[in-house]
Amino acid sequence: GSSCEKCDFETDLCKALHELNLQPGWIRRNGRSGMGPPYFDHNGNNSAYFLSLSSEMRSSSATLRTNVFLPTDEEHVCQITFHYWISQMSGTLMVGLQKHSEDSVTNIWQVSEELQNQWKTSTITINSTEKYEV
């Protein structure tokens, strides 16, 4: 509905992602950055920006956190669609859910693929009776 927010990283991190929660390892870049693939975004645009893990991050993980979302119900469904690219370094991309009353993050989606070298799209639906972060 009207609450949909597109996050394309063209000018900065979108409102949904904490600026301060961009942990070391994530960089905002485009296909012209000279950092290797991908050389374009999911629309084939080589000047469009996306977030990328820096090559120094080979052996560890880096997290992106959203702002706090309000509880979901029949009227307010939360659906997040995102585009991702996994390059020659094998890795796991995970989406976690942290509810306000819980300390731990629950893994709700993950993919482990090697050498895809293509953009893929995923949509996840989130249900939570309390405030949460993703």
How far apart, in Å, are the first and last alpha carbons?
Answer: 19 Å
The total count of strands amounts to 7
Rounded to the nearest angstrom, the radius of gyration is 15 Å
Strand order of the largest sheet: 5-4-7
Domain MAM: 5-134
Organism: Fulmarus glacialis
Protein name: MAM domain-containing protein
Structure report:
By secondary structure, the chain is an all-beta fold. The chain has one domain (26-133). The chain has no helices and seven strands. It has a three-stranded antiparallel sheet with strand order 5-4-7, with no helix packed on it. Strand 4 and strand 5 (106-113) form a beta hairpin. The radius of gyration is 15 Å and the shape is globular. The mean pLDDT is 84.
Tag the structure with descriptive keywords.
single chain, about 130 residues, mainly beta, three-stranded antiparallel sheet, two-stranded antiparallel sheet, 7 strands, globular
Task: Please give the structural blueprint.
Layout: E1 26-30, E2 49-53, E3 78-85, E4 91-99, E5 106-113, E6 119-126, E7 132-133
Antiparallel strand pairs: 1-2, 3-6, 4-5, 4-7
Describe what is shown at a glance.
With 134 residues, the chain is an all-beta fold.
